[in-house]
Amino acid sequence: MAAARGLLEQQGIIVVGVASTGTEAQAKVVQARPDVALVDVDLGAESGLDLAERLAVPVILISTHSGLDFADLVAESAAVGFLSKSALSSAAVHDLLRGGEDQLSATPGT
Predict the structure, then answer these.
(1) What is the pLDDT of residue 101?
(2) pTM for the full model?
């Protein structure tokens, strides 16, 4: 997560917190009131899809796996979209928040 945070901060996104569990994420969202939360689909024992339902901010789901693996689940979720971690960028986050296309491919540009 440190690499993603560094990348986004270099591209002008202010990262107000990082969480390791759903409970911690919910508390940080209440405290920091971010504009968006990036949530990994696979949180170990927890589901990022379930967490997206509980957060009171727009959620972008992320994963190292291809979004094609989760397309139906993402479409049915409360998330505004999905980005593979390889496609993660400030521009991609802003595009999804404006209603752009999900980045379902695990490889940028495909």
Answers:
(1) 66
(2) 0.85
Query: Mean pLDDT by 10-residue block, N- to C-terminus, for the chain (110 residues)?
Result: 87 92 93 94 89 95 86 91 92 90 47
What gap in Å lies between CA 41 and CA 49, rounded to an integer? 6
Written as six digits, the tokens of 102 are 């999900």
Which one-letter amino acid corresponds to residue 66?
A: S
For 82-109, give the secondary structure using H, E and C: EEEHHHCCHHHHHHHHCCCCCECCCCCC
Which residues, at least 6 apart from 104, have a Cβ–Cβ distance to it below 8 Å?
Answer: 66, 67, 68, 71, 82, 84
Q: Which of 49, 46, 25 is nearest to 37 (CA)?
A: 25
- Which structure tokens are listed for 3? 């690499």
> How is residue 7 written in tokens?
């990348």
